[in-house]
Amino acid sequence: MSELFFNKIGVVLFYLCITIYLYGDLAIYAAAVPKSLRDVTCTFKPHSTGNISYRECNVTLDDAMPCWENSHINRMGVYRLYVAGFTFLLGPFVFFNVQKTKWLQIFTTIMRWLAFILMIILAVIKIAKGQGRGHPDAANFNGIPNLFGVCIYSFMCHHSLPSLVTPIKDKSKLLKLFAADYTLILGFYCLLSFTGIFAFNSIQDLYTLNFDPSSSCGDSDDSATNVPTFQYFLSLFPVFTLSTNFPIIAITLRNNLKTLTSYVMKKRKCSNMTDRLFFFHWLHSYHQL
After folding, report:
1. Taking a C-beta distance cutoff of 8 angstroms, is the pair 223, 213 a contact?
2. Residue by residue, what is the 3-state secondary structure of the chain?
3. Burial class of 9 by CB neighbour count within 10 A (0 to 12, 13 to 18, 19+)
4. pLDDT tens digits, 43-102
5. N or C: which end of the chain has fewer CB within 10 A?
């Protein structure tokens, strides 16, 4: 399809942009899931020293601290173990194809809606009770790099558009449909962002970890909810959703790399050799037997 709009150099650059983008997605997933698991399972809490408490809201736990009481394994070590486990469990799925993902997509969609609505409601309740601790600046230009990264990551919703548009027979109302869809997405982004920055004193790298039961500063007013089910569901939300999406995005990356190498090399013999050496074509063939 890209050959209809670009010349040879443009096609190569197009596939390079897609592969870099997908690789960035996978890197985020591979870091977010172990981080969520580490922060939920590590229960060690440093004790206060005099008037100074390590559990203050503006102080983060150091990676060199132990994960559990009287344990020799620090938080960074546990994080690396989770990264290795995540890689060994989901990595092999890269060499297969994923089909009939209907129920997987339904499960992921339900989990996302539940988590988003729950985070917004809990933050609104916290603010309504007068327990909001956030006092954000009107403008902070130091946050522009983060904004740029979030905007790029929001591009993720665009690569699903072709699969959504193709089955629609009457495409005359697509503009209105997607305008309403993206307006709804913008509304959720605004609600999630503004309720979060006014409800919490500081926002963690993963917003869901602000609902972690160990993220409070020692008083019940700091916690968004005291219901353990909600706390652990939101803290582990990235584990559920990102783990299900990881194989699909990894396979998409593999297919784009195969298409790029085949396009560059042109010769079928080289493409077959590259396919067998780098993309484990033999494993996929064995799976189909």
Report:
1. yes
2. CHHHCCCHHHHHHHHHHHHHHHHHHHHHHHHHHHHHHHHHHCCCCCCCECCECCCCCCCCCCCCCECCCCCCCEHHHHHHHHHHHHHHHHHHHHHCCCCCCHHHHHHHHHHHHHHHHHHHHHHHHHHHCCCCCCCCCCCCHHHHHHHHHHHHHHHHHHHHHHHHHCCCCCCCCHHHHHHHHHHHHHHHHHHHHHHHHHHCCCCCCCHHHHHCHHHCCCCHHHCCCCCHHHHHHHHCHHHHHHHHHHHHHHHHHHHHHHHHHHHHHCCHHHHHHHHHHHCCHHHHHHHHC
3. exposed
4. 887 764 444 444 444 456 777 888 888 888 888 999 999 999 999 998 888 877 777 777
5. C
- Which pair of tokens denotes residue 227? 């219901």
Distance CA 218, CA 66 (A): 20
User: Mutual orientation of helices 144-153 and 8-41 as an angle, nearest 10°?
Assistant: 110
Neighbours of 29 (CB within 10 A): 20
pTM of the predicted structure, to 2 decimals: 0.73
More confident residue, 99 or 232: 232
Structure tokens at 225: 């909810």
Distance CA 220, CA 227 (A): 11
Tell me which range, 23-32, 55-64, 75-84, 249-258, is most confidently predicted by mean pLDDT.
75-84
CB atoms near residue 251 (< 10 Å)? 17
CB 246 within 8 A of CB 101: no
